[in-house]
Structure formats: C-alpha cells, structure tokens
Amino acid sequence: MNHGSLEATAKSLVAEGKGILAADETVGTITKRFESLNIRSTEESRRTYREMLFTTPDVSEFISGVIMYDETIRQKDTQGTPLPDVCSRLGIIPGIKVDTGAKDLAGSPGEKVTEGLDRLRDRLSEYYKMGARFSKWRAVIQMTDSLPTQTCLSVNSHALGRYAALCQEQGLVPIVEPEVLMDGPHTIGRCQEITGQVLQMVFNALYDQRIFLEGILLKPNMVISGKECSKQASVQEVAQATLQCLRRHVPAAVPGIVFLSGGQDDRLATEHLNAINSLPLPKPWKISFSYGRALQDAALEGWHGKNENLRDGQQAFYHRARCNGAATMGKYTEGMEEDRARKAIPAHRAEWHDD
Predict the structure, then answer these.
(1) Residues classed as catalytic
(2) Considering the entire predicted model, what is its pTM?
(3) How far apart are CA 288 and CA 290, in angstroms?
(4) Quick one: which of 254, 302, 342, 350 is 20 to 30 A from 152 by CA?
C-alpha cells in the first residue's frame, strides 16, 4: 500500500472548487431515467450520453473525478479511446462503483445489506489496470421510528470496512458511502440522531480494519427532514445540523467529505452545500460534492437522446458543475442561475464527433 499515492489522489478529488460526478447508475436505473424522457436505452445511447458529460469543454475546472459503472469503464469514445483514458487526458480522475447492490438483509425486514465482497480483490486489480484510481461502495440505511437496527448498522459498517481495506491494498482510494435515506416522515432531529450513529459505527469499523484515513473520502447524506415530514427544515437549519453531526463523528484525518444529493432538487442540493461551507465554524476536511442526478438531470433533459442536442446537454452540465464548484467555497449565489447564458461554454470548444 502506497500511503503517499492514496493521500495525493484523495486530496486531488477534493481540490479547491471541485467535486465528483457520480455517473455510476446501473443499466436498470439509467434505463428508467432514459425512458421517462422517451429515450431508448442501448449500450450505444448510454455511452453517448456519458461521453457527452465527460467531454464537456472546460468542465474539469469544477469536476475532479467521475465514478463509472462497469459497463462504462469498458467502453470507448467515438475515436476508439477507452473512456477512462479520455477522462484522464482531460484532467478528470476515473473512478468505479464496485458494490453489486443492496439486497434484503436476512432476519431484518425492511432493511438492506450491500453485497459485492466476493472476488472484490480481483475486480479491483482489473479496474486499476483499466485506469481507475478511486472507487465507491454504497450502504443503504432505512430510517423509521424503529429502524435502523444495530444488526443492519453492524453488517453494513463491516462491509464498508472490508471494501475500504481491499481498495487501499490495490491502490484505489475508497469512497465510503453510508446513505441514510431521506424517504419517510422523519424530522431533521431524527435524521441527525441516526446519521450520527451510522457515522460512529462506520468509523469504528474502518479503525478495526486498519484503514489509512488520510487515503479515503466520506460520502454521507446531509442531515435533512424526511420527504414526507410536515415541517421541512430550512437551508440554514440543514447546514447547521449537518456540520454539527460531521464535527462530532468524522475524524479530522479524513481529507474530504463529498456529499450525495439523495434525491434533492439540483438547486437545493447546491444551496445546502453552499450554506454548509459558509458556516463560520472550523472544518478540518474539505467539503464538496459527489452528485448524480443533481448534476445530470438538466443535462439529460437538454440532450434528450438527440445528437443535435449534445451542446445543450453539455451546457446544462457545465452550468450545474460551475454552481456546485462555487458552493464548495461558499461562493454560490442565486445570480449564478440567471447568469447561465453569459457563462456558456465557448461554441468553438463544444466539438462533437458523430458516429
């Protein structure tokens, strides 16, 4: 294990003003998103869409890395260059999702455990050779009045620890993602309580597995009200509760925290990130983003599956990346949303080669 290389990669992923694009949707998930816009989902259309995102001109100003799915990391662009190499040449670090999904947890109705540890060492070695330098594993935590159980927290924390140890052994920075779902009527107070418990158990497991904390990134949920909660917390309340929770449970040795959006509206996810970074409290880690839909929704709608709309899709992606890049420094403003047209990517840089 090369500690220096792991730490350097982790720090690069949370460089000033930058964050991570999560483009690691499974075929089933991205097909549902395509079909909602009447876009046909094929291996080729999925490649075209993701190539559009990765090659958006100048987006590396705000995007440090991209998490790919197994299908994507094996694909090539229209010129025959492997997509990980395409990203690397543009200054974007390739990453890979390595878990195989959340399955029902035996003996714990309503709860999930993430699988994928079998043969993980071999898969990580292969992905490293393909150009990946970081990875992601997502644990899913359902919250109700009686959930999560200690069993659920224990097995998912242990799996995250084993995954992280295997990644570091193979030279990949593990993104550790324990997601407390925002579904349900829970209050922000309940979310803070459970998120704190989850983070505490996760870091206990990482310690038990002898993880080099300077060579990981944490990808948690923000502390927010449940979708069905009658009283939705304000942006400022979310920022204060989230930062308080992180300061209590995340070791200072961790170089960066890259939030998931968790189904938040794209602008709200940006506002929350900006508010957290604007709070006048010590933050021993860089606080950034690893968004999926909050970066992609507008781009997908702008592209709409048509080659003639590729520039529109790239423009939408560039705009959201720019806004979130500013939010990592607490510099996002409402005016940036109205300023979109003036900050358009230069026409001469938005080149695309049709098949």
Answers:
(1) 177, 219
(2) 0.95
(3) 7
(4) 254
